[in-house]
Amino acid sequence: MGDIDSDILRTIIDTAHDHFFVVDAGGHVRDVSPAAAAVYGMSREDLCRTTVQALEAQGVLRPSVSLEVIRTGKPAQLMQVTGTGRRVIAQAHPVFREGRLAAVVSRSMDLTDLQLLQEEYALLQRRFSDHLRRSGIADEPGFEAELGDLEVRSEVMREVALLLKRVAPTDATVLMLGESGVGKTAFARQLHRWGARHAGSFIEVNCGAIPESLFESEMFGYRHGAFSGAAPGGKAGLIEQAEGGTLFLDEIGELPLAVQAKLLKVIQDSSVTRLGDTRPRRVDFRLVVATNQDLARRVEAGEFRLDLYYRVNVIPVTLPPLRERREDIPGLVERQLRRLNGRYGRDKIMARDLWQQLMGRDWPGNVRELENWLERAWLSAADDVIRSDVPAREPGAVTVTAGDDAVHPAPDGEGLRDGESLKAALARTERAILAEICGEGTSTYAIAERLGISQPSVVRKLRRHGLRVGAKAPS
Question: How far is the C-alpha of 24 from the C-alpha of 5, rounded, in Å?
Fold first, then answer.
């Protein structure tokens, strides 16, 4: 059986697309995959005659992920720069025998390959769009009725809706990409309704809103007595609640690395073990994730696991910002007016002269900003006609957008200082306003409400600027 195992291992290493290294506990290279030579600039034979310590010292690879595992005894992931000038993502895992480290197995992927995959997907998406235009599928009778609560009139958004409708009957994981407020949650809900699991629950989780210390108990659940204060009888986590339905993980890019590893295991094993329990529970759900971040860049920076990236990036769907699909604005306004009129029992309408202003704005907060603006306008109107525009922000205030962490100082604010970049000036202005609000002794939720951004975004910004609620920092 040993010879068969050796042949299987040899076949895996020789044919793998990724670049494999097998290193012993002393750092000696025992084997590498043939394709590694092109990336690291040395032949397979030369690589197998040296150590990872020497390779790191010579600049063939830096830093060495295998050395990190040898030092810590734990799996590691990092970005390497090779002697050939390539950037690769490297992962390594320890192999133990009788409780002692015996070897390290690492694999790396050239980020050039990742870029090519992204370009290939973009090409396929363009071809799919061309096919839709030629076939006229989006113009078929009844398609509008199938869109449910979605308001899509622009060609690009109709293509997105059709793509989601095509993949809805499958269990393929969908990755929703786009700026904050573009409507990722609404499209995820519609995907659930179109899918075979529509009778099950749609469980929405904001990954950035759950503290890391509470993530396991909230997501995985716990049994009675798992920790102090645990509810009698235990509790099913959010993952279990998605059984037979859809689990929607919004802001997945906000997950800490340690939590990413735990989530990956659940996805791979299709099972979850509650805190304090030893019995895994099978879970069957459709996974949909969303982010306003560039996950590929976060992988490069070592802030997002490569293996989790592959798991969630099966069907990537990009929702463009509202400024790139202004044809959708009238439908979105009409929908929000219907909601507001129904909620407050009135029948208000828009004055004609407002439409040009609405169509001309860039709406950096996208659909969410448009809906919030319309609610303010509705509430401000003295009668049943919304006649005048509503300021996008109060005089002297700052508009903060969660999607791009941008701040836009008021025109009458302080300008650029000598030698100061625009980025530095925006950061300075953002910090000053946050410091002022923090001094009022409020909460992060109140700050989020005041600035019109999410509470997780407030937490990130306070951490970035070294601020805390209740303590006004010196400017």
Answer: 18
Q: Whole-prediction pTM value?
A: 0.63
User: What span, in angstroms and rounded, lies between the C-alpha atoms of 59 and 41?
Assistant: 11
So what's the pLDDT on residue 256? Answer: 85
- Please, what is the average pLDDT of the chain? 81
Distance CA 63, CA 80 (A): 6
Above 60 in pLDDT, residue 137? Answer: no
Give CA–CA dist 410/392, Å, rounded: 11
Tokens standing for residue 325: 């699909």
Residues in the chain: 475
CB proximity list for 272: less than 8 A, separation 6 or greater:
220, 221, 237, 239, 240, 266, 280, 281, 283
231: left (phi over 0), alpha (psi -120 to 50) or beta: beta
Burial class (CB in 10 A: 0-12, 13-18, 19+), 353: exposed
172-212 confidence digits (pLDDT tens): 999 999 999 999 999 999 999 999 999 999 999 998 888 87
Q: Got the DSSP string for 268-301? A: HHTEE--BT----EE---EEEEEESS-HHHHHHT
SS (H, E, C) 184-199: HHHHHHHHHHHCCCCC
